[in-house]
Each structure stands twice: as structure tokens, then as C-alpha cells.
């Protein structure tokens, strides 16, 4: 008997009827003769609602307590899904991340999975149960505290379970039919990708295409688990994430497309450290302090220092959710580094163009920047990797910029195939 690992996102579990629908799909996989293990997210927007509630009680809640609160969301859905399955005459058992053996480091809010020890899952399977695991959570090896994996983390739970259980593939069920050339909510003409390589999907996810959690793609690549992203609302084949940009093209295959897609991200903020003395070690002091505070930095730009003052400005982007902590951390550093002031801007957006073909086709940046210029979009910062070009723009320009790039690179589909079945996109 094969083992099937599935994941259902919050948008697929929005209410009681949705839960019953998902239960029927899970039971279908069991009826087809498989052992079935399912990772579930919290219902609908309930994680956001819990966060809103926490913010009303405390502007900067203790990270441990926030994790205790947020993991409750997934516990609610795991139990309800198990109940719905039992109502269909099948037996299911639900497990928290900790019970399922999801072992993490001790970083609250963005813990990394270190290991999965699926003993209890295996016993439950052997007893004939369908196994439902609360996604997005684990338990720290060192502190024994409950942790969460970061927003969207149930994808990573699912891939980690698939790896630990030697599944052939991990199925991620969501509210769109697969991975598209852009977010279908912004570009109705987006095209579904039949396949996409791990590297391109990593860049898409890191650039804001939240259809997959970044860590889930890293994990899948490391353990060589293909991910099948598909809709829980349709029976269409989705997108298979597998293979490398360095794999030789199969004999007689068409040339791979140059661009895999356009991603956007509204979740970053920009901090500018104004008037930094232009001398050795200043940038190191600033970024060491931020690293110690566990803050991930994205783009960095340092201006040429003005000759008269010998002072420079350093700007960088980071997740808005880390903005408060970063500003507090830098404020404490002010006297030591001797910079003048700090600026904070949340009204930015990032547009990224991703594709393996960039490596061998010149002129991609020129075309990208021209498309933005023609759409009247001003570029604030630029960064690149081997297969990605990203720009920071005004947040109000994000939709227009994505649509313009999508069209400029001939990604628009002739017939609309990008259906959004549910979810609020929150
Ligand atoms: P779930 O609740 O299933 O985890 P998410 O909201 O986290 O769902 O992810 C699915 C959403 O990702 C889609 O509704 C879509 O708006 C968004 N998305 C962003 N970029 C893409 C893309 N390139 N392809 C598909 N979906 C995308
Ligand atoms: N419920 C969590 C979130 O909303 C985890 C997930 O959905 O994957 O981020
Ligand atoms: Mg998600």
C-alpha cells in the first residue's frame, strides 16, 4: 500500500461545509487503497484573527505566548477534520505537531524543522487510522516549548512528513489550480505552469508568491520530494515542483521558457539608517545587531558618502512583522555607531521576475525596466540573483507593475485559466 501525504490550507477549510468537503477528498484517497496522512492549516483567516486579537491585548506580545495562541488554530481544524472523517464511516486520529514528532529549533515564530520522528503516526497508520496532523507547529528539542514555523508553515509540515514517511510526492491542496505565472488575484490572464524547478519555485516563494512556504520548497529540494500543488475545489492536475535548472533538457523537448513568473510582495518594509559615518565596521555593527535579533534582511543599498560630511545612508528591506523589533534594536545602537536618524517606510512593494532562462538571454533587465517605465512605475531599489531580478516600488504601483511585466514578457494566456476558488487572499 502506498502512502499519500496531503496538505489542506486555511482557504480550503473555511467553514463546516468546507471541512466536510475536504474530509470526502481525504476518504477518497483512503478508498483508493492508500495510507493517508494529512497536514491541516487553521480555518479560513483564523490565524490573522488570532493575531489581531493578540495585538489588541499587547502591541508586542511575548513570542512564546503568541505561539501558544496561534497553534490553537490548527488544533481546531485537525479535530474537526478527524470528526468529519469519522462521520463518513472511516477512522481518523488527529495529532498536534509535538505529538506527531515534529522537532524544531527554539526560535518562536519562525522555527526550523530539525527532524521528524513519526513513531505515533506510523502506529496510528498501522491501526488503520487516517492521520491528521496540525500544521505550522512543532516542539523545540532544547526548550521543550511549542513553536510555530512562520506564516504559511503548514506546507513545510506536509513536506517534512512526506520526507519522514518516504512518500513519493507531497500533495498541497489550495484555492487555485497550481502555480501560475503570477498571482491569479492580480493577473487574471496568468498561466498555470505544468512543472517548475525547485530553484525557480524557491525564488518565487522567497519573492512573495505565497502559494508555497519558502521552507517547504527548501525541504523538498533537499529530500528530493516532488510537490504537487493543486486545488481542493477542482480535480484538475496542478503544478509539479521538481527537478533542477541544471538538469539537461530531455531529448527532443521544447526549449524551456525564459521566464517562469512574476512575483510580488507587499509584506516588506524599508529602513534607512541616515548619516552613518563612512568608516570600516559600521555596516558590520548594524547588521550584526539585526542578526542577533533574528531579523532576516532582504535588499541592502548603501549610498556613496557625501564628500563634505563623510556620512552615508544605508537602506535595507525586511519583513514588516520584524519592523518594530528592528527599529528598537537600531535605536539602542545609535550612540555606539553614531548615525543621525532612522527612517521607516511600510508603503513599499517588491516585484520580482524569475526564470532560469535569464542566465543565457541578454536584455531581460532592460525589458523589465522598460515595461515598468512605460507603466509609469518608479524604481526605488534593485537586486538580482542568477535567475531573478527584483525591484522595490511604491506599494500603490504593485498591481500595475506586475500586470505590465506579465504582458511585456508574453506570459498572458489566450483563455483565462486562472480561477481563484476561495480564500480572502489575506
Ligand atoms: P492556503 O490557504 O491554501 O495555504 P494561500 O493563500 O497561502 O493558500 O496560497 C494560495 C494563494 O497564493 C492563492 O490564492 C494566490 O492568491 C496566491 N498566489 C501568489 N502567487 C501565486 C502564484 N504564482 N501562483 C498561484 N497562486 C499564487
Ligand atoms: N495558519 C498558518 C498561517 O495562516 C499556517 C498556514 O496556514 O500554513 O500562516
Ligand atoms: Mg499557504
From TrEMBL:
GO molecular function, one term: ATP binding
Matching CDD domains: AAK_AKii-LysC-BS, ACT_AK-LysC-DapG-like_2, ACT_AKii-LysC-BS-like_1
Enzyme Commission code: 2.7.2.4
InterPro entries for this protein: AceGlu_kinase-like_sf, ACT-like_dom_sf, ACT_Aspartokinase, ACT_dom, AKii-LysC-BS, Asp/Glu/Uridylate_kinase, Asp_kin_monofn, Asp_kinase
Binding, ATP: 7-10, 174-175, 185, 210-211
UniProt-listed NCBIfam families: asp_kin_monofn, asp_kinases, PRK06635.1-1, PRK06635.1-2, PRK06635.1-4
Record protein name field: Aspartokinase
Family: Belongs to the aspartokinase family.
Keyword Nucleotide-binding (UniProt): yes
GO terms under cellular component: cytosol
Entry's Gene Ontology BP terms: diaminopimelate biosynthetic process; homoserine biosynthetic process; lysine biosynthetic process via diaminopimelate; threonine biosynthetic process
Keywords: Amino-acid biosynthesis, ATP-binding, Diaminopimelate biosynthesis, Kinase, Lysine biosynthesis, Nucleotide-binding, Transferase
Pathway(s) where this gene product acts: Amino-acid biosynthesis; L-methionine biosynthesis via de novo pathway; L-homoserine from L-aspartate: step 1/3; Amino-acid biosynthesis; L-threonine biosynthesis; L-threonine from L-aspartate: step 1/5; Amino-acid biosynthesis; L-lysine biosynthesis via DAP pathway; (S)-tetrahydrodipicolinate from L-aspartate: step 1/4
Residues that bind substrate: 47, 74
Keyword presence, Ubl conjugation: no
Domain ACT: 271-356
Gene3D superfamilies named among the record's database cross-references: Acetylglutamate kinase-like (3.40.1160.10), VC0802-like (3.30.2130.10)
Recorded catalytic activity of this chain's protein: L-aspartate + ATP = 4-phospho-L-aspartate + ADP
Function: Catalyzes the phosphorylation of the beta-carboxyl group of aspartic acid with ATP to yield 4-phospho-L-aspartate, which is involved in the branched biosynthetic pathway leading to the biosynthesis of amino acids lysine, threonine, isoleucine and methionine.
Origin species: Nocardioides humilatus
Amino acid at each position: 500500500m502506498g502512502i499519500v501525504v496531503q496538505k489542506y490550507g486555511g482557504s480550503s477549510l473555511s467553514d463546516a461545509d468546507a471541512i466536510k468537503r475536504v474530509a470526502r477528498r481525504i476518504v477518497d484517497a483512503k478508498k483508493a487503497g492508500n495510507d493517508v496522512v494529512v497536514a491541516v492549516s487553521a480555518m479560513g483567516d483564523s490565524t490573522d484573527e488570532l493575531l489581531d486579537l493578540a495585538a489588541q491585548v499587547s502591541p508586542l506580545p511575548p513570542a512564546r505566548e503568541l505561539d501558544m495562541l496561534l497553534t490553537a488554530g490548527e488544533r481546531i481544524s485537525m479535530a474537526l477534520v478527524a470528526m468529519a472523517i469519522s462521520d463518513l464511516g472511516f477512522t481518523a486520529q488527529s495529532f498536534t505537531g509535538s505529538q506527531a514528532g515534529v522537532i524544531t529549533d527554539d526560535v518562536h515564530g519562525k522555527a526550523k524543522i530539525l527532524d521528524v520522528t513519526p513513531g505515533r503516526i506510523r502506529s496510528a497508520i498501522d491501526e488503520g487510522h487516517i492521520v491528521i496532523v496540525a500544521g505550522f507547529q512543532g516542539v523545540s528539542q532544547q526548550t521543550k516549548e511549542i513553536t510555530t514555523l512562520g506564516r504559511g508553515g503548514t506546507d513545510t509540515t506536509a513536506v517534512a512528513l512526506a520526507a519522514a514517511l518516504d512518500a513519493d510526492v507531497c500533495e498541497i491542496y489550495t484555492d487555485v489550480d497550481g502555480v501560475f505565472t503570477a498571482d491569479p488575484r492580480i493577473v487574471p490572464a496568468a498561466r498555470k505552469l505544468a512543472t517548475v524547478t525547485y530553484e525557480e519555485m524557491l525564488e518565487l516563494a522567497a519573492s512573495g508568491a505565497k502559494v508555497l512556504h519558502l521552507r517547504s520548497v527548501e525541504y523538498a529540494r533537499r529530500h528530493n520530494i516532488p510537490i504537487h500543488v493543486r486545488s481542493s475545489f477542482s480535480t484538475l492536475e496542478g503544478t509539479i515542483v521538481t527537478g533542477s535548472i541544471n538538469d539537461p533538457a530531455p531529448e527532443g523537448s521544447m526549449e524551456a521558457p525564459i521566464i517562469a513568473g512574476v512575483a510580488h510582495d507587499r509584506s516588506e518594509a524599508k529602513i534607512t539608517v541616515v548619516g552613518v559615518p563612512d568608516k570600516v565596521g559600521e555596516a558590520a555593527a548594524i547588521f550584526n545587531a539585526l542578526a542577533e535579533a533574528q531579523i532576516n534582511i532582504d535588499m541592502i543599498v548603501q549610498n556613496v558618502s557625501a564628500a563634505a560630511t563623510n556620512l552615508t545612508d544605508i537602506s535595507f528591506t525586511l519583513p514588516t512583522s520584524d519592523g518594530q523589533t528592528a527599529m528598537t534594536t537600531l535605536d539602542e545602537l545609535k550612540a555606539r555607531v553614531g548615525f543621525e536618524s532612522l527612517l521607516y517606510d511600510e508603503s513599499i512593494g517588491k516585484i520580482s521576475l524569475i526564470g532560469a532562462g535569464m542566465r543565457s538571454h541578454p536584455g531581460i533587465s532592460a525589458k523589465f525596466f522598460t515595461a515598468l517605465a512605460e507603466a509609469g512605475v518608479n524604481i526605488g531599489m534593485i537586486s538580482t540573483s542568477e535567475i531573478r531580478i527584483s525591484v522595490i516600488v511604491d506599494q500603490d504601483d504593485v498591481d500595475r507593475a506586475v500586470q505590465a511585466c506579465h504582458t511585456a514578457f508574453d506570459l498572458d494566456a489566450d483563455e483565462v485559466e486562472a480561477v481563484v476558488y476561495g480564500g480572502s487572499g489575506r
